[in-house]
């Protein structure tokens, strides 16, 4: 299995090379040359542990890793860091199955992939005889940052620099990052939004002069964002896992299709569900759930992607994104794998802030449909599910729940639905408690609200929250969005 660039089909690399590079030299993203197929039956997979399912799925994509190498990476990633034995759990509520992806070290779904990425990356470096120190450069809208920091902290041969929007994450998300220990970690807030941070990181990846400076110091960039195929492949696993758990519980028959609803901003999490369908998972509809920044909803509705709009800060900040990087992979597939056409559309996006796809391309994206939830609707669905099912969900998961319910009402499609539950409610306690109590809690102390949420939910306070309650602030750098490169050079002593 080789990987091609979405913008130049002549660029071909192995899986380990794609993971090492993160982004192709031409600015494109790496995609599988062809889609593999599941080799074990769904019934056989339903009898396996999460680690075993992870091997069966990931070995299809990471073919230049030996069985021993991949098994070692999986075992190191999915261990006691996760607070439930099954790693990910399904909870039935509100006529749907909530796939809880937040039982890891940083209580967000990013742990599912970022727990394994450092192991995949360091193994890839050894396989390719890379002696350079790897610098993980990443932008975060809230969750990727902490999960990446936790994964790479003090990993030999690596450094990590994370940029986040100063006023664009929750207080808990910020504290998780700025209290991060590790001699190889650096966290920098920018005066701007997530798209500014992401654009700044992409520009540094494509900066030849900066690459030469890094090389002279024995350093090289790689990415922990979902643009890295090493992030995307582990995410495919949990959709396969969810299905085979439903099968094991008798909730679906083998081969019966399910719908999957994913709250998404950067499009990586739902793209993984699309890849799961491509390898043989019985999926009917992929329901893309957006918040008030509904650029993806508008795209699926009209066929035009247009980021030229107001950027709205919402109660689901990890989805406050107007440039959905991973959509490029779907665009590439929808062109019939025409890298030249994909490059042309990405050029339009960069220069004009928008592009439109053809009717043939839209036809190839028919698996997808979009929906969105306003902040008021997010509060309403959190309150409703709490009152009806005594189940507490966070604001991002609530976007998915609202959209899934609206889809059912509008289409009459009662297919069994899995909703990706992407973060613990403790990560967004202000908005969650406010929704349940029907109050504006903007002036309340975060940690008082955490105690309140504990009483309301009966969920134990996760160790990730307890750790930051009295932790020392270790990272306090704030810079202008135009000074990101300068900060990187300063951090790395270039």
How would you describe the overall organization of this protein?
- This protein has 494 residues and is of the alpha/beta class.
- It has a domain at 89-108 and 235-463: Rossmann fold, CATH 3.40.50.1100.
- Helices cover 45% and strands 17% of the residues.
- It has 22 helices and 16 strands.
- It has a 6-stranded mixed beta sheet, sandwiched between helices. Strands 9-6-7-8-16 form a 5-stranded parallel beta sheet, with helices on both faces.
- The longest helix has 20 residues, at 229-248.
Strand order of the largest sheet: 4-5-15-10-11-14
Q: List the uncertain runs.
A: none
Please estimate the helix content: 40-55%
Distance between the termini: 37 Å
CATH architecture of the domain at 89-108 and 235-463: 3-Layer(aba) Sandwich
Can you give the mean pLDDT? 95
Query: Based on helices, strands and strand pairing, what is the structural class?
Result: alpha/beta
The count of helical stretches stands at 22
How would a textbook summarize the main sheet? 6 strands, mixed
The overall strand count is 16
Question: What Rg do the Cα atoms give?
Answer: 21 Å
Tell me the CATH topology of the domain at 89-108 and 235-463.
Rossmann fold
Instruction: Name the CATH class of the domain at 89-108 and 235-463.
Output: Alpha Beta
Relevant terms:
16 strands; single chain; alpha/beta; 6-stranded mixed β-sheet; Rossmann fold; about 500 residues
């Amino acid at each position: 299995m080789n990987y091609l660039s979405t913008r130049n089909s002549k660029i071909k690399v192995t899986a380990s090379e794609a993971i090492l590079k993160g982004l192709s030299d031409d600015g494109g993203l790496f995609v599988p040359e062809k889609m593999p197929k599941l080799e074990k039956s769904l019934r056989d997979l339903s009898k396996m542990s999460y680690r075993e399912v992870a091997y069966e799925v990931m070995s299809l994509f990471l073919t230049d890793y030996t069985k021993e190498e991949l098994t070692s990476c999986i075992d190191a990633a999915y261990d006691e860091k996760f607070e439930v034995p099954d790693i990910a759990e399904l909870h039935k509520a509100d006529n749907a199955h909530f796939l809880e992806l937040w039982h890891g070290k940083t209580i967000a779904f990013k742990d599912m992939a970022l727990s394994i990425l450092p192991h995949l990356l360091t193994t890839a470096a050894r396989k390719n005889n890379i002696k350079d120190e790897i610098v993980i450069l990443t932008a975060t809208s809230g969750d990727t940052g902490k999960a990446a920091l936790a994964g790479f902290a003090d990993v030999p041969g690596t450094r990590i620099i994370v940029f986040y929007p100063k006023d664009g994450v929750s207080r808990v998300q910020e504290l998780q990052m700025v209290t991060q220990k590790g001699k190889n970690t650096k966290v920098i807030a920018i005066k701007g939004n997530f798209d500014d941070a992401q654009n700044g990181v992409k520009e540094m990846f494509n900066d030849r002069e900066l690459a030469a400076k890094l090389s002279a110091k024995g350093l090289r960039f790689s990415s922990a964002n979902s643009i890295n195929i090493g992030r995307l492949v582990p995410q495919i696993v949990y959709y396969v896992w969810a299905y085979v758990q439903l099968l094991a519980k008798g909730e679906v028959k083998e081969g019966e299709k399910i719908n999957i609803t994913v709250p998404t901003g950067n499009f990586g999490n739902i793209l993984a569900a699309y890849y799961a369908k491509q390898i043989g998972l019985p999926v009917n509809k992929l329901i893309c759930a957006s918040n008030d920044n509904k650029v993806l909803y508008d795209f699926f509705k009209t066929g035009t992607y247009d980021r030229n709009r107001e950027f709205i800060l919402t109660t689901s900040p990890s989805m406050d994104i107007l440039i959905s990087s991973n959509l490029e992979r779907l665009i590439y597939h929808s062109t019939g794998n025409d890298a030249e056409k994909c490059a042309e559309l990405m050029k339009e996006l960069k220069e004009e802030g928008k592009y439109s796809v053809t009717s043939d391309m839209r036809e190839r994206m028919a698996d997808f449909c979009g929906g969105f939830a306003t902040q008021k609707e997010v509060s309403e669905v959190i309150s409703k599910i709490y009152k009806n099912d005594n189940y507490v969900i966070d604001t991002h998961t609530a976007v998915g729940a609202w959209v899934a319910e609206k889809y059912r009402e509008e289409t009459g499609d009662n297919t069994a639905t899995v909703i990706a539950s992407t973060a613990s409610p403790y990560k967004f306690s202000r908005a969650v408690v406010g929704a349940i109590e029907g109050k504006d809690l903007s002036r309340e102390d975060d940690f008082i609200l955490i105690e309140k949420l504990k009483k309301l939910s009966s969920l134990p306070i996760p160790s990730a929250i307890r750790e930051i309650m009295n932790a020392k602030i270790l990272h306090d750098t704030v810079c202008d969005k135009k000074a990101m490169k300068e900060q990187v050079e300063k951090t790395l002593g270039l």
